[in-house]
Amino acid sequence: MPQITPMTEMLQAATYDQNVRIGGLPFFEAVAAHQLSTVSYVTLLRSLATVYDTFEQVMVQTSDYALRTIWGRDLHKQLLLQQDSAVFAGTQIHDVPAAKLGAEVLAEHIRLRAILDPRSLLGSAYALATWYMGGSAICEQLVHTLRLSSASGVSYLASFDSWGQAHWPQFAESLNVIPLEPEAYQQVILAARETLDGIEQVIYLLHPLNENPTSELATLLNPLAGNHPITGDLDEIKAMMRAYERISRLFPYIDQRYGTRGRKFCWSDAGWLLSLTSESQDSVNHQIQWLTRLLSMRGMPQWHMECYLQMLYEELVHVLPANRDRYATLTGAVQMLAHERRASISDAALVSLDNAFYEHVGPEWRAWMPNCGGLLASAVADEHAGITHALAGIEKWMSDPARFPEGWLTAVRDVISRARASRT
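Predicted structure:
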């Protein structure tokens, strides 16, 4: 059933508190007090360019007509951001790793939404179109603070008022006529809040400037992860995110079950593992086996990590081929995990059991949630390898009658029975 309250009104209400928080950040206090540094401002422009570039790429690739309709050329901000940055071309601006990572994290959330739930990006579009606050006053303050000869360095910020006057009614109307089911509508709201959270995080890092190296920024990947070390190479982190995109396509179950929280833990875990790749193979194997067994007990069978580490290796070698030998410890760990699984479930048996599962539930389920039969068979192998509660960790969720029809539940029972019977 389409929503009754106009979408824009619901989005305004849902994001009001975030906009208030953003407006109260020390960054804007520094602007008002004429104390903001040039580094902070230019880094904001560069960070926003990363986010808008990603969103524009998604818009080019999407087949969703509604998204294409609302994101008109009047919302393309890259040229303005480039022009503003060019004003400071003669100024030495050092990189701020925290801001770069924060922008990449938000960009990755956008890319993953494009894969998993494209229509939800209506919320991201709304946030990117409307997040700005401050009016002409902030532009005047920045011109004074940064000693600009004209307003040419603040054209991006100045564009929001002119856009609102000229285009807001049409934008709102286009957004409000899109019919959405309640669940899809909630995802639109979550996407808007996620986008504003990302923008807030980046701006928070800019005053006072967070000068910490990337290796000390695990909480930007996952606020719940704690301050453990991660790789200090942003290219490695971006490769890790590409690997997660691939694994989310292979195993949509993970995102369906654990959502954004699980995604962030996967990022922080992978960032930690990447910091270990130069250690001995035995050490890397030990750390990965410890983590993988823990995750298996929580519903992520070891086959998931086996596949993920292989994809991670491929993405790393693609962008940083000179480090191939160091990254080989990851493939060594893949072989270790595969050897353990194959002691119970061979590669051929894994494929056969997965096919048998979808013979029960049909091609539509396979298109939506592929490789679930293989995950269940892998959990049986984990159980046989002595991982306590490995099968229970996934079986309970997969057997929930409130989530799945009877045919699915029958398939779960059948593939578990077959996997136990076919252990090599």
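Summary: The mean pLDDT is 95.
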